[in-house]
């Protein structure tokens, strides 16, 4: 199944993150599809733990310079790119001083979730969508990994609904057991600014509630971890969206 354009949107990928199933799975999926002759791109946040020097990240000036407006505030979008070490596979990094410079991912040193996790997810999702359009590269398959990426289909099917750029792209969502946390209660106001309302996840906004919400906005849901947490597994079993049990990396192209 070569000659497909496959976009991986992820919050983790080996070797930028180590020791997690998601990071390993995304690395293997992307490389397998790349080596089979597909045009593969990966987008992820440029978290502060990712060394620009070690991984040879450099800014792409022609893609940077946009501003994403979140809750009436302009936030500059910086795009960096690197090749996966030892491979000819390009990884694009969404960066912003305000949201991604800190060394921790979603929780501070005391284990408290960051107050702006919701804004970081919105910025990441919109940053990916706008950058793909600027690249003038239309994916056939969009594969989502990690809770921040779950905001992408919600935006595509609401805020960008009249935009035909992604209309033929099929969206796959992988589910993983990620640490849950509450999101800012004012997220409804921030989404309302982008004309998004009526989401069930807004009743009790959490990392997990938005992942569950996004199941309604994708073409297929697949287990990224073989055994899911009870409430995530219940949501998986209940969704009417096409779904697949856990697939090993060698079988993932069957899904595509």
TrEMBL record:
GO terms for molecular function: alpha-1,4-glucan glucosyltransferase (ADP-glucose donor) activity. Pfam families: Glyco_transf_5 (PF08323). Keywords: Glycosyltransferase, Transferase. It comes from the Bacteria. It catalyses: [(1->4)-alpha-D-glucosyl](n) + ADP-alpha-D-glucose = [(1->4)-alpha-D-glucosyl](n+1) + ADP + H(+). Residues 5-181 form the Starch synthase catalytic domain. Coiled coil: none annotated. It is an enzyme of class 2 (transferase). The keyword Transferase applies. Its EC number is 2.4.1.21. Gene3D superfamilies: Glycogen Phosphorylase B (3.40.50.2000). This is starch synthase. It comes from Chryseobacterium pennipullorum.
